Structure formats: structure tokens, C-alpha cells
């Protein structure tokens, strides 16, 4: 019986090749999109699931309660020892401190090579908490001795051209010879750990004294602490017990710490602590479902439309003894055959567009990852669901056709599904497309608003170049003197970091004007020399710039600082004193600059001060004339390399750094464009199929209308006006839903664009234009045909 269904289904599909092709292509696009989304979701959902005890592994994090709550994926350096020695909740506790951009020197056969890599200083228990085995498969990793390290096999190949490197050495930061004691298997891409060089924690004090200390006085994002809890621990009870630590070690601090335990499973999905937003995964899944839904709607619309043509076939079958169930399963068989071809074509589409997805999200997904039981289960589920949802409704309608009416040719559209159902489904298609187009426009406007607005500083034509830390002032002056001689260099400043686009931000405590206590808020320290304000073109609104000095005695603050301390005029701040960083810095306010966006538009502008201290400089900012950029950069590199022969020249333009802050939004925008285009493409395929059917059905009517005087424009309007009405209804339905959802998205920005009515009007008009283009070819083809031919169709 089933073979007979399939054979008849195949014949029917070949008989209507155009409609079959439209259905297969629409479903294939939906299946291909779903497969790519499946790969993306599977990748993210599999993060750090390979460890031996993932349910007992936690990261220790901090909530900093001031005027606002800040979330830090870190704890003070002293926390690890206190949690290990004073409590009995954990089997293992380990700290990890990452030093970014470290200089690595290796020597192979007399050839000295330099690398710039992130290095992780690891306490020994780290590799007992996590399951990162050595190349030989064992877990016997030992970093208890100083000047020892383990590296990944990938980096071993990169450094030495071989994985047989145990016993070899490399030089860290032109200073320490480090012996390799083990080679790790390459780290999975689905893990939080991205570094490839792991050095004994004993060496940390040589490179990062604060992180190696037992201080409770601050937090650095470079440090993270992990623990493997004993079985059956109550996390809430542990967090309650940890409330005593800040009271004991930070009793007078206005920055109230609350230490929390973050599960390993939450690390990749918690945006408060640097993870991705899980809402993104939900959005991906829903969009995949929408694309399949649009394809199913196409199938249902075209199938119910064709039922009018197939009514005599069904009437004959019923007269010859077919039951409703037979007809239902016959039509479902046709749907299954179409879906099967669509799945195969969808897999091909997924393979073709997978590299684009990898490039967009910087992933390494492969089509080979589809060769799993889970994927085949997913594919069978989707195939069965789509086949059943697409085929069941048309199958039910066809099985209900009255054979007498069918054989006499007296069936109406209502007998074969009617226009109402098709109109509802077409409205749903249009609504999804309008919502996606509107979302794309709003995301685009927000990114344009953030990147083109006045940030309060100049980001154009400024090159940021890293310099080694802890240089002597005379070295800065010598390098500055050499760089100033380059013709196209207009301004130079040495600084800790640029005003925006930098990850090297430093927030610290502040006491204003000899008040008895620290302020509730923290202040951002922007450390730079006396040319900082001029180079970045900050606006001085009151007072003057600070004078050059070997220590910080004068500072310039921003207007936001005055707002925070309750001062109404910038001039009132002049001459007042501040104490920052636990009173280690005491200085007088000599100037006030306008507010500038130190971080993305998602966050409020923070109070900040600017001051000079050569001990903290880590970058050079160079304002250049872009007349001959390449030559200028080459000369900068030449002078820099002569000054720092043991280091690697590294630079970036400031506008590129600022743009990186909106990398996630750019990806959302790219995806919105792709999904909108796919939704429109699938919808257009369905519209083309419907108009092909309706034009064929109304060929004689068109001939009569032309005989009675209708022109081409009248005929075109005859078909388009009905669709335009449906688009307007879809727009009315889609607008409030899309408006609400995008309003919720924009709530994540402290500085945001507004949603205007014309965005939705433009989306509706766009769909109208696309619809007009889609249906024009077939309509015009029939409209310009001689009415004699039209009237002879029967």
C-alpha cells in the first residue's frame, strides 16, 4: 500500500513540475536554515560538558554594591586561600591569572622566534578540577615547581614544529626561562579556556604583583577562581557563609562585596559575567521555526489552490471506492516525498553556507558534526513535523470533496479550502517578513547612532601602539622625541589606555573635598600625560590642563563627576581635592572636560579623572595625518622597534577599537538581513506559485475584461490590490509586536535611538514593492496576451 502511495505521489509531482519545484525550494531553504541553526545551538549548548564533574564545578564571582551593582567574574586575590583554608565546602580550589599579550621567545636550531601570546598562570589544582588531559591521555600535570609550564600540542607545533617538546625551554617576557613539563591535548573549542600556555603560579609575582598577593583591597578581571565542591553541597548556604568575608576584611569600604558561586553550566550563558545572552539562542531557534513555518504556509497555500484542479481525480477515486483515509494518506505521501527531497537539498544549502556562518561568528563548525545520532533524531523529527503539518490540512480538505460535485465541475473555492484560509496564511507570512525587516532597520539605526554620534573625543586617525610597562621616564621622552620627527605625526600621548575602545579600564574608590567617607560610586582612572586631552581632542569646559609631573598632584575630571558629587557648575570643582585608590593618590582638581563615552552606548558614562603617571603607561596614542598612512606606520614601527628590540610591534586604529564594541550588534544586523532576505525569498516563491495558479484560473476572465476595455494597468491592479490589502493587515498585526520586542531590545542601551512609525511604514511598502515585482511577470504575461487566445483556453 505504501509503495503504491509513493508511486502515485511521484507521478503527481512530475505532472506539476513548477509547483513541485517551488515547494521543494521553499522547504529546502527552511530546512537548510534550521540545520545551520541546529549546528549553532548545539555548539553553544555543549560548552564545558566534557569535564568529569561539571555539576560540582563553580567559578567564584563578585557583586560590587555601590550606587549601582557591578558584576565581576573575579574575586580579590586573597579569596582563594581563605576559601580553601577556612571553609570545608570544596575538594579543590585554584586561581588562574591571565597576562595578555606576553612575549614568548623560542630557539630551534639557532633560529630565534618571537610570539605574542596570552599566558595563564595556574595554581596546581586547576588541572585536577578540570579535565584537560595531556597528549599521552594522562592527567598527571604538575606545575608546583617555579619556571615550569605546560602547553597545548597546537602551540607546540607553532613554537617548535613538533609536539616532542617536553624538557625544552622558552623565554617569557625577555626575562624568565620556562621549562616545558607537559603537552596538553588541543583544547576543545567548546570550553571557557582559550589560552595555550600555562605557567606555574609561583612565577606570577614576577609579572603581576597585585594578582599574586593576598590582598582584599581590589579586583582585577585578569584573575579568576574556581572550585570543585564536595558532593551534595548547598550553594545558597555557602554564599550565606561567605557574607562574613567582606565584613571581616573590608569593613570600612563603601564598595560592598557579595561573593557568589557561579555554576560551570552558567558561565557561557550569563551576560552579566561576560557570557553570551541566552535570549540570542532562543531568537535563533524561533527564527528557524518561522522560516520553516513560512515554507509550510507556501506548501499549504499552493496545495489547497491545486485541489480545485485535482477535484475530478479525487472524485473518480472516491467513486472507485477510495475512503477518506486513503486519500489523506495519499496526499501525505506526496508531502513526504517533497519534504525528503527538500531535506537533501537543505543539507546541501547548509554545507554551502556554513563557511559564511563560521566567518560571521568566528567558529569552526563543520558539516561532519552532523554525523551524530542526535542530529539524525532532530532531522527525522523536523522532517516528520513539516511533512505532517504541511500535508495534513490539504489532505483533509481533499478527502472531504464531494465526488458528485467534483465530477460535474460544480465545486467552488470554499469546497477546496476557500480563500479565507489562504488569506490568513499569507497574512502570517507577510507579518513575519515585515517584523524582520523592521527589526533589521531598528538594529541598523542603533548601530549607526552609536558609531556616528559624538563620543566626546576624537577617534579618527589615531593609532594606538602598545609599549612595554615599567619604562623609565627618560625612555618615554627619547621615544617621543624620535616619533615627533616623523612628518605626518601631529600629536603624541603616552597613556594607560585610550578614552574608548579599551579593555584596560580601571575603576577605583574616590573621596571628594575632604569628606569623611568615600563616595558611594567608583571613578574611572584615565592615566595619560599632559598631551592626553589635546591628542584625543577632549573638550576642556572649565579650568586648565594639568602640568607635567613625576607624580600625580593635579587632575582633570569629567562633568559626570560633578553631577555625582552634587555640583551644578564645573567651575565649582576647581581647586577641590580628591583622594583615590585608598588615598594612595591625593590631588587637586585643576580642570573639567566634557563627558566622553569610555565604553559602549549600552552603559552610562562613568565619573572619570585624567592624570599623568609614567609608571602606569602601557600605550602610545599618535594622531597622524592620513596623507601617506602606510609610510607613516612603517616609520613608527622602525623607531619603536629600535627602542624596544626585544618586543613585538603591535598597533590598532582607535576607530577600529571603538567599532569592536559593537561587534555583537553588527552580527545581529548581519543575521537580521540574512533572515529577512530568506523570509522574503520563501514568501516570494509562495506568491509566485499562487499567482501562477490564479492567473491560469482567471485567464478567460482576463480575456473578457480586455474585450470590454481593460488595459494592462487594470489587469495588474486586479491581482495586486488583493495582496496589498493582505499586506496592510499583516502590517497592522506585525507593527505592535515588532515594536514591543525591539523596544525591549533597546532597553539594554543607556543611549539609544528612537523607534519611529516610518520604520514600519517602510517595511510595509518594501513588502508591497517586492510583492509587485514577484507577481508582475506572470500577470503582465497574461495581460499582454491577445484576448482571442485567452477566450479559447477551453
TrEMBL record:
Q: What keywords appear on the UniProt entry? A: Cell membrane, Membrane, Transmembrane, Transmembrane helix
For this UniProt entry, what is the primary localization, expressed as one broad class? membrane
The residue ranges of the MacB-like periplasmic core domain are 20-243, 431-596
Query: One cellular component GO annotation, for this chain's record?
Result: plasma membrane
Q: What name does UniProt use for this protein?
A: FtsX-like permease family protein
Q: Which residues cross the membrane?
A: 21-41, 279-302, 327-355, 375-403, 424-443, 674-695, 715-740, 755-777
Membrane topology type: Multi-pass membrane protein
Under PANTHER family, the record lists: ABC-TYPE MACROLIDE FAMILY EXPORT SYSTEM PERMEASE COMPONENT 2, MEMBRANE COMPONENT OF TRANSPORTER-RELATED
What top-level branch of life does the organism fall under? Bacteria
Q: Does the keyword Ligase apply?
A: no
Q: Which GO terms describe its molecular function?
A: transmembrane transporter activity
Where does the UniProt annotation place the signal sequence? none
State if Cytoplasm is listed as a keyword. Answer: no
Q: Where in the cell is it found?
A: Cell membrane
Do you know which Pfam families this protein is assigned to? FtsX (PF02687), MacB_PCD (PF12704)
Task: Write the lineage as a comma-separated list.
Answer: Bacteria, Pseudomonadati, Bacteroidota, Flavobacteriia, Flavobacteriales
Domain ABC3 transporter permease C-terminal residue range list: 286-401, 674-784
Amino acid at each position: 500500500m505504501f509503495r503504491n502511495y509513493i508511486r502515485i505521489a511521484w507521478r503527481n509531482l512530475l505532472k506539476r513540475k513548477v509547483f513541485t519545484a517551488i515547494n521543494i525550494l521553499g522547504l529546502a531553504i527552511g530546512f537548510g536554515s534550521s540545520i545551520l541553526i541546529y549546528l549553532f545551538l548545539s555548539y553553544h549548548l555543549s560548552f564545558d560538558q566534557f569535564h568529569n564533574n561539571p555539576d560540582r564545578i563553580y567559578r567564584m564571582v563578585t557583586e560590587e554594591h555601590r550606587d549601582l551593582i557591578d558584576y565581576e567574574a573575579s574575586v580579590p586575590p586573597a579569596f582563594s586561600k581563605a576559601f580553601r583554608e577556612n571553609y570545608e565546602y570544596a575538594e579543590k580550589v585554584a586561581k588562574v591569572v591571565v597576562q595578555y599579550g606576553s612575549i614568548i621567545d623560542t630557539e630551534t636550531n639557532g633560529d630565534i622566534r618571537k610570539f605574542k601570546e596570552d599566558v595563564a598562570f595556574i595554581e596546581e589544582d586547576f588541572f585536577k578540577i578540570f579535565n584537560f588531559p595531556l597528549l599521552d591521555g594522562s592527567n598527571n600535570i604538575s606545575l608546583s615547581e617555579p619556571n615550569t609550564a605546560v602547553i597545548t600540542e597546537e602551540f607546540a607545533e607553532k613554537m617548535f614544529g613538533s609536539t616532542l617538546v617536553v624538557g625544552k625551554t622558552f623565554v617569557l617576557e625577555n626575562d624568565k626561562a620556562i621549562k616545558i613539563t607537559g603537552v596538553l591535548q588541543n583544547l576543545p573549542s567548546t570550553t571557557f579556556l582559550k589560552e595555550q600556555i600555562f605557567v606555574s603560579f609561583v612565577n606570577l609575582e614576577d609579572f603581576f604583583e597585585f594578582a599574586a598577593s593576598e590582598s582584599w583591597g581590589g579586583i582585577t578581571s585578569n584573575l579568576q577562581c574556581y572550585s570543585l565542591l564536595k558532593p551534595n553541597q548547598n550553594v545558597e548556604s555557602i554564599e550565606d557563609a561567605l557574607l562574613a568575608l567582606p565584613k571581616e576584611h573590608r569593613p570600612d569600604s563603601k564598595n560592598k562585596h557579595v561573593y557568589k558561586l557561579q555554576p560551570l553550566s552558567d558561565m557561557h550563558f550569563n551576560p552579566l559575567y561576560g557570557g553570551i545572552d541566552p535570549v540570542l539562542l532562543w531568537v535563533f531557534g524561533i527564527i528557524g521555526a518561522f522560516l520553516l513555518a513560512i515554507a509550510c504556509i507556501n506548501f499549504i497555500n499552493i496545495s489547497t489552490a491545486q485541489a480545485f484542479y485535482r477535484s475530478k481525480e479525487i472524485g473518480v477515486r472516491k467513486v472507485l471506492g477510495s475512503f477518506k483515509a486513503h486519500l489523506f494518506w495519499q496526499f501525505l505521501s506526496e508531502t513526504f516525498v517533497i519534504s525528503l527531497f527538500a531535506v537533501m537539498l537543505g543539507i546541501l544549502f547548509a554545507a554551502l553556507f556554513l563557511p559564511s556562518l563560521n566567518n560571521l561568528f568566528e567558529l569552526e563548525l563543520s558539516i561532519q558534526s552532523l554525523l551524530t545520532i542526535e542530529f539524525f533524531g532532530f532531522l527525522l523529527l523536523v522532517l516528520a513535523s513539516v511533512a505532517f503539518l504541511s500535508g495534513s490540512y490539504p489532505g483533509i480538505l481533499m478527502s472531504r470533496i464531494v465526488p458528485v460535485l467534483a465530477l460535474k465541475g460544480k465545486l467552488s473555492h470554499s469546497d477546496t479550502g476557500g480563500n479565507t484560509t489562504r488569506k490568513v496564511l499569507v497574512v502570517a507570512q507577510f507579518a513575519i517578513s515585515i517584523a524582520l525587516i523592521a527589526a533589521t532597520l531598528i538594529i541598523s539605526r542603533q548601530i549607526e547612532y552609536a558609531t556616528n554620534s559624538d563620543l566626546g573625543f576624537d577617534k579618527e586617525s589615531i593609532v594606538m601602539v602598545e609599549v612595554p610597562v615599567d619604562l623609565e621616564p627618560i625612555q618615554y621622552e627619547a621615544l617621543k622625541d624620535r616619533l615627533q620627527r616623523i612628518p605626518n605625526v601631529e600629536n603624541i600621548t603616552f597613556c594607560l589606555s585610550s578614552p574608548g575602545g579599551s579593555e584596560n579600564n580601571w575603576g577605583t574608590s574616590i573621596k571628594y573635598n575632604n569628606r569623611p567617607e568615600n563616595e558611594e560610586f567608583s571613578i574611572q582612572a584615565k592615566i595619560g600625560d599632559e598631551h592626553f586631552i589635546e591628542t584625543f581632542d577632549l573638550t576642556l569646559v572649565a579650568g586648565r590642563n594639568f602640568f607635567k609631573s613625576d607624580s600625580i598632584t593635579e587632575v582633570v575630571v569629567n562633568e559626570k563627576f560633578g553631577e555625582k558629587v552634587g555640583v551644578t557648575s564645573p567651575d565649582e570643582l576647581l581647586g577641590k581635592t580628591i583622594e583615590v585608590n585608598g588615598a594612595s593618590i591625593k590631588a587637586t582638581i585643576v580642570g573639567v572636560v566634557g563627558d566622553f563615552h569610555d565604553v559602549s552606548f549600552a552603559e552610562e558614562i562613568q565619573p572619570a579623572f585624567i592624570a599623568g603617571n609614567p609608571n602606569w603607561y602601557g600605550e602610545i596614542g599618535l594622531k597622524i595625518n592620513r596623507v601617506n598612512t602606510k609610510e607613516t606606520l612603517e616609520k613608527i614601527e622602525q623607531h619603536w622597534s629600535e627602542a624596544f628590540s626585544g618586543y613585538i610591534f603591535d598597533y590598532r586604529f582607535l576607530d577600529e577599537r571603538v567599532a569592536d564594541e559593537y561587534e555583537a550588534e553588527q552580527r545581529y544586523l548581519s543575521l537580521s538581513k540574512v533572515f529577512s532576505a530568506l523570509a522574503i525569498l520563501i514568501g516570494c516563491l509562495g506568491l509566485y506559485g499562487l499567482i501562477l495558479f490564479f492567473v491560469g484560473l482567471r485567464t478567460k476572465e482576463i480575456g473578457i475584461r480586455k474585450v470590454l476595455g481593460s488595459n494592462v494597468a487594470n489587469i495588474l491592479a486586479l491581482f495586486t490590490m488583493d495582496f496589498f490589502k493582505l499586506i496592510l493587515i499583516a502590517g497592522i498585526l506585525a507593527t505592535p509586536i515588532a515594536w514591543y520586542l525591539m523596544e525591549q531590545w533597546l532597553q539594554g542601551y543607556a543611549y539609544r535611538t528612537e523607534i519611529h512609525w516610518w520604520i514600519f511604514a517602510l517595511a510595509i511598502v518594501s513588502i508591497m514593492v517586492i510583492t509587485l515585482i514577484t507577481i508582475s511577470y506572470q500577470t503582465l504575461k497574461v495581460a499582454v496576451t491577445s484576448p482571442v487566445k485567452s477566450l479559447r483556453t477551453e
